[in-house]
Amino acid sequence: MTVAFLSGRARRAGVALGAVSAGLLALSACDKPTPIATVTVGTESVHTEATSGCYDADGLKQSKAQECLQKTGGKVVEVSLDDRIRFGVDPEIAENGWTLFINGEPAEPEPYKKTYRSISASAFFAGQAGGGPESLRIAVVETHEKTKKPVGIWHFELKKV
User: Fold this and answer.
1) DSSP string across 75-122
2) Does the model's pTM come out above 0.90?
3) How many Å apart are CA 99 and CA 103, to the nearest integer?
4) How many other CB atoms sit within 10 Å of the CB of residue 36?
5) How far is the first Cα of the chain from the last one, in angstroms, to the nearest whole number?
6) CA–CA separation, 89 vs 111, rounded Å?
7) How many CB atoms lie within 10 A of CB 67?
8) Could you report the per-residue pLDDT of 7-40, keeping only the tens digit for each?
9) DSSP characters for 29-87?
């Protein structure tokens, strides 16, 4: 015959305590999610966090920022030359300012400070009708307001249809 060392109530309390402890341990191991950048064309939206390893609230080192800008991939957004592309960022990105990069090169001289902007798709593929590239790598780059270092980089791919 076996003897129960713990009552049912004590076992349930122990299991609950173990589950809470495991949950807290899992949460403490998680990194805080990075802010989100979104691209919308028509009624289709895609959003993403910063590319893995390409976010540091204090600013990325120059070598790391260059490495991140050269990464390929990212969420694919299909566009026609008639479309308007809407870019949106979380308010904390807008506070510092953000810039669009095309194929790793800056597309504008100064960081933008609002959470939303709309640009014609033809501006990205200008002068490239018919024979131009079928896709472009677009990076949203947050810049630290004081140090001007890149803080985070979000990647998208514009694919011409």
Assistant:
1) EEEEE-TT-EEEEEE-HHHHHH-EEEEETTEESSSS-B-SSEEEEEHH
2) no
3) 13
4) 15
5) 75
6) 13
7) 14
8) 666 566 555 455 555 454 444 445 678 899 999 9
9) HSPPPPP-EEEEETTEEEEEPPPTT-B-TT---HHHHHHHHT----EEEEE-TT-EEEE
